[in-house]
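Ligand: pyridoxal-5'-phosphate. Inputs:
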Amino acid sequence: MISLVDLTAQYHSIKEEIDSAVLSTLESGHFILGPQVVKFEESIAAYLGVNHAIGLASGTDALVLALRALNIGTGDEVIIPAYTFFATAGTVMSVGAQPVFVDVDPQSYQIDVSKIRSAITPKTKAIIPVHLYGHPAEMDPILEIARENHLKVIEDNAQGLGAEYLGRKTGSFGDIACLSFFPTKNLGAFGDAGMVVTNDPALAERMRMLRTHGWKKKYYSEEVGYNSRLDALQAAILQAKFPHLDSWNEKRRELAHRYNEKLGSSGIVIPVEREWGKHVPLVYCPLGKT
Ligand SMILES: Cc1ncc(COP(=O)(O)O)c(C=O)c1O
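Predicted complex:
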């Protein structure tokens, strides 16, 4: 049987770098947050061109913390694409809000921006575009609609690390963006891991508090928070893998082009890369046969 993803192949290609990162973390005695996490947070912030990055336990937690930091809860509505991973909708519901589904463009799989306005009601608080399969959502119209209607934008960039919209990295557009380092992602940990990024210092501070029980000062909870800290081993592994991210994404692009060439004439509707976007195909997902 050929497995869909062989995660050990990537490990073996950079085994020495990973092993040395793991061993030095074991020797360091820092296992939760600490210098390894700070270093990785700085790497991602610089890569995306944002001011604050906060390492968390998962991409799902990243969405929860983003929603909580923006005070989204009971009675609120959040616009999300109708086609996404469960967590985009599940986290909205977990904070007590209602997801409102907007259909997607069937070729790019991204939220159909022409259908967002009609989904807005007085209860709408935010839009969550999802850069699904590593293709960017169409950010300019989304940001314009959000501005006009006083809505927040949370990018779900769990699948899009390295993707670009008009030459700028996804994850750098929204009030907050959420990343996942689930093992099969473009940059994958050896376990669960996630991150939120923002340019807003107040939102960054709130999410830092929320990831550790709502603490501003140790043991003093300002509000009810979570235990959602990125651990040092995952950060060290991710930092070791990080310099390879762009070349791995290029390889994904190259393979997708090869599939497109071979499948394009077969009647199968192949995935598109819109002219305004750079696709980093996390998943190669043809639409099916015409
Ligand atoms: C679009 C999307 N959002 C959110 C998540 C949640 O991330 P995690 O699995 O790290 O909790 C995922 C990952 O599986 C995802 O693909």
